[in-house]
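The passage that follows is intended for readers who have already worked through the single-chain material. We present the inputs for a multi-component assembly, then the predicted structure in tokenized form, and finally a short commentary. You are encouraged to pause after the input and sketch how you expect the pieces to fit together before reading on.
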Amino acid sequence: MLSVLLGLAALTAQAAHTQVELLLSAAAAKPGDTIWAAVDMKMEPGWHTYWKNPGEAGIATAIKWQLPPGVTAGEIQWPLPKKIPPAEVTTYGYTNEVMLLVPLTLASNLSAGPIDLKGNVSWLECKDVCIPANQDVEEKLNIGSEAKTSADATKIDAWNKKVPQTNAFYQFQAWWESTTNDMRPFVMSNGRGGADKNIKFDSVDFFPDVSDQFEVQAPTVVLSAYSAEIRLRKSIKKYSGDWPKEITGVLVLQAGDSREGFEIKMHVADKAPAGETISATESLPPVSPAPPLWQMLLYAFIGGLILNIMPCVLPVIALKILGFVREAHSEPRRVRNLGLIYALGVLVSFLALAAVVIGVKSAGHHAGWGMQFGSPIFIVCLTTLVTLVALNLFGVFEVAPGGRALDAAGELAAKPGTPGAFFNGVLATALATPCTAPFLAPALGFAFSQSVATIILIFLTVGLGLASPYVLLSWNPAWLKFLPKPGAWMEKFKIAMGFPMLATVVWLLNIATASYGKNVLWLGVFLVIVAFAAWVFGDFFQRGRKHKGIALALVFLLFSSGYFFVLEKELNWRKAMPEADATGSLKESADGIDWQRWSPEAVAAARAAGKPVLVDFTADWCLTCQVNKGTSIEIPSVRAKLKEINAVAFTGDYTHTPDIITKELNRYNRAGVPLVLVYPRNPDAEAIVLPEVLTPGIVLNALDRAAH
Amino acid sequence: MKITFALFAALTLAASAFAVEVGKTAPDFIGTDINGKTVKLSDYKGKIVVIESYNSDCPFCNNQYKTGAMQDLQKDLAAKGVVWLLVNSVNPKNFSHRTPDQAKQEIADKKIVANAWIDDSSGAIGHLYEMKTTPHMFVIAKDGTLVYDGAIDNQSDPFHDPRTANNYVRDAVNDLLAGKPIEISQSKPYGCAVHYAD
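Having made your guess, compare it with the prediction:
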């Protein structure tokens, strides 16, 4: 039945979901005048019609005029359309209502009297189905010696203001970013600095004109949304002919409720203008064009290497050293294999991370590096895991049966087993993630804006960097000779290494406070139960001789009661407390820096008041941030300098990865904290982006520059 | 090391195999036709394959079928040994979705000549081939290379008789059979957006 109805709808315009009417700006006009004809299209909710470039599907609305001699119709003036989802087939069009405007020129020799203006409007309207429709429209106009506006003139005028115009301010240039076969990315920019005011737009986009030979793809990467420098990355798919030398279309700017379009035309250069490449390395621009892939991969690799010596990996290095000592005295082939399995553990973990990033990315969230540390569930799991590692190091229980051979390491070539090596790799990765080492950050910042394949590639490269020293050593066991000989000290060393693990647990508990507040006590209770269960497991099940079954049952009972009564009931661990929304000063000590809570509005207000601004984006789980703060920010000389130049200091807490800060980080091509910005006193000047690892000199120097 | 390399190779292969590109091997897929039969693209290696993104409620598709132009093309190409696969990626909630019984009826009513009507209501094949519109056409050479990706013809409106237009699929297949290079190997697909599942 429904299909019959729709079949009819497709054939008869009367049943269409769009009402079409012809309106004129004038009720009467003189010969020689130009008046506006407006095709008013009103669509039912959910239905849309198309722009002059319909996008990846659809068809543009067309008007066929039947006009008396002496009346000439111009081109359709199209009001600014919007992008219509879904993302996989993006189209440009209108919902609710649109007026397509056409200038009608009346010849100067037109004779007086009424004339009939007729036309046929044809369009495609779509919702869950698409229906082509067309309708005749007609309106009368009086030609005489007096011009008179019509009742519709105001409305037509309002729609006329929505038609994109050219504006000398928005002069764009474009250049190819690479020259691949089918699809080429290009960057478009309006240069830098030409503005008297520097507004940040909420969104910037480019809607291209239609072409048979190529198509500017719908997705847009916004590289900079400041009026002084608008910069977008788009790509073009070519169907035939040469690559275009010129691209035309509409620049779409939105700030608050106001949304405007500007006709732009740009030449596409083969490479970036000379000034662009210089500015990418000099003078700390707000956003620099992304470096080439090989460079990013190199950074990713070096970043991975550096992760080996970052504070949050150090405890695991202890584990690894133990492994080295044990394995150096077993067969070289086995050492090599274990090295590779360790590397595999690292790589698999990084793949899992990449999958998370891709998942989050596709879910439309702005992912941030280290974000897994913002998740309370992750922190509870990791805290439990690290506690178990400490207990294992203390010898409370063994990971693998036979691992007890370690006690007699001097006489036995320990066989730590495949799972041990794999697990080491996984643990190293889990602990390494919040340490956004200096080289790693740009690589990851780059990764977040990239394709799935590139993300995977970058994450794997970081993993290779992290694993490579170990693989190298296991491959050249000769170098292992420099390592100390095994002996009784090893067992002591192993136990000693349990304490850094306990310290890590304390640090993790501190982070968990942000999510659970005082209830973190229950996490502590849970850890004690887990520790007790581990002891029962080790002493009565693994090493015991009798009643092993009872011991195992007790372990299960302890775990499940710990889980259900403590984690689920008391801690309610899957529902973290929302972050307290404190305002006012966040001073850490009486004479400390007078930190204010960061928000874009607060920064804008302080800058408008002519004050230099210091912004520190930090997170509880970010060690580099704490180190920066302790050594180079919260120090007497910087406190004095801030007072001297009358600067305002803001701190943004990224512990729970709020979207608003993720956006700000991405704007500066960073995928995670730390990010420290210094805004100069001059409200129009760009922010100075400080490097990831700070020294007092860097901070003081930037503040001096900001004061001028 | 072997394992690592294998992992790397597998990943890069998987990533590159995802891209539909003229001149490259067309990505393989496994689908189920309306008779419940498994259809695998690679089973047709050695034959020219035409893939059509189909939704007869779309006026652009409908125009091809109601004028008989598409069936003529299907018959002509079938006589030349060309395999025709119809892919319907409309999601099950959409009005234009067809159950297997409705699809069988539609084949009979419209006298469609195709080797298989693949139910792709998950959109897996549609997304794999980045099908944008109905109709969106693909021609695959005997060796599995994608040689045409784009519109059915050069007349992007749902009102005129398609037989007066220049049919890109017919041209591509004829070029292939004549052993000539494909004159037009890409064009912008036109039509209705594919109604994918959310």
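Commentary: Chain B is about 30% helix and 15% strand. The interface with chain A takes residues 1, 3-4, 7-8, 11-12, 15-16, 18, 21-23, 57-60, 62, 94-96, 127, 130, 132-133, 150, 156-159, 184, 186-196, 198 of chain B (CB under 8 Å). How closely did your sketch match?
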